[in-house]
Design goal:
By secondary structure, the chain is of the alpha/beta class. Helices cover 45% and strands 19% of the residues. Strand 2 and strand 3 form a beta hairpin. The termini are far apart. About 6% of the residues have low confidence.
Length: 263
């Protein structure tokens, strides 16, 4: 008489149990991680954002360094440094954006590139040793040179905005390489590619000069302490609104200085 023997459970059976236990452990850990992300959605969003390339914003400032700017030299230096601090604050407020500064000064002796696509986080302030007004105003050459250089540097890049700020106390009177129509064509072409142009001036018909170059964002300021302080404040507020418009995917080409839009 043969007795039925129990099924044989050798080492293979124990290994199978061990594998099942490991799989269950892994599934449990995955479920726990998913629950953690649901409980902390902000952390999950920040982690996903860090993996995404930031939107670049290039701030190009074209600053008149002609002799007539000597009377407001200290205020202009202080104003530029305040704008730098403003942009640093904007980059912190809008962490999905990465800001860069290019600063070109110009006069009849030539143009100087003091900064070019420098990260705002690493930028230092300028002083009177780097800004020395003299000679006349080759405005068209300065715009043509600066914009062309930055356009070539950006190449075929798509995920960016450029904000060009032109600050001068006089009209064009000394360019040799670019004329008015050429600068206007250049600006109109760049405006079709996420470039925004602004024109800040004093001691001349600012709106007329800006319009002649197809620049729709402009305002004039008084050439005194209060006037320059007001100018810097208006510029800072407009820059914050500009970054908000980028975040919300709103139009950025026109209406830069419109004050009826809340930040």
């Amino acid at each position: 008489m043969r007795l039925n023997s129990p099924p044989f459970r050798g080492a293979g059976g124990q290994e199978s149990k061990s594998n099942k236990f490991k799989l269950l452990t892994i599934k449990y850990r995955i479920m726990k991680a998913n629950k953690s992300e649901i409980k902390n959605p902000k952390s999950a969003i920040l982690n996903s954002q860090s993996a995404i390339q930031k939107h670049q914003v290039h701030n190009l400032i074209i600053l008149d360094e002609s002799g007539s700017m000597e009377s407001i030299k200290k205020n202009i230096i202080s104003g530029f440094n305040e704008i730098v601090q403003t942009v640093k604050g904007i980059e912190k407020e809008f962490p999905e954006q990465e800001h860069f500064i290019s600063l070109v000064t110009f006069n009849g002796l030539g143009h100087k590139t003091l900064h070019f696509t420098d990260a705002i986080s690493k930028l230092e302030m300028i002083d009177d040793s780097r800004y020395q007004p003299d000679a006349n105003t080759p405005l068209y050459d300065a715009i043509g040179f600066s914009c062309t250089k930055l356009r070539n540097s950006l190449g075929k890049r798509k995920n960016f905005n450029v904000l060009v700020t032109i600050l001068t106390d006089g009209e064009e009177n000394a360019s040799t390489e670019y004329n008015g129509p050429a600068v206007k064509r250049l600006i109109e072409d760049l405006k079709n590619n996420n470039w925004t142009f602004t024109y800040i001036g004093t001691d001349h018909d600012v709106e007329k000069s800006a319009a002649s170059m197809s620049i729709t964002n402009s305002f004039s300021f008084s050439k005194d302490d209060e006037g320059i302080k007001a100018m810097i404040m208006k510029e800072s507020k407009a820059r914050s609104k500009f970054s908000m418009n980028i975040r919300e995917k709103k139009a950025t080409i026109d209406g830069f200085y419109d004050e009826d839009v809340k930040i």
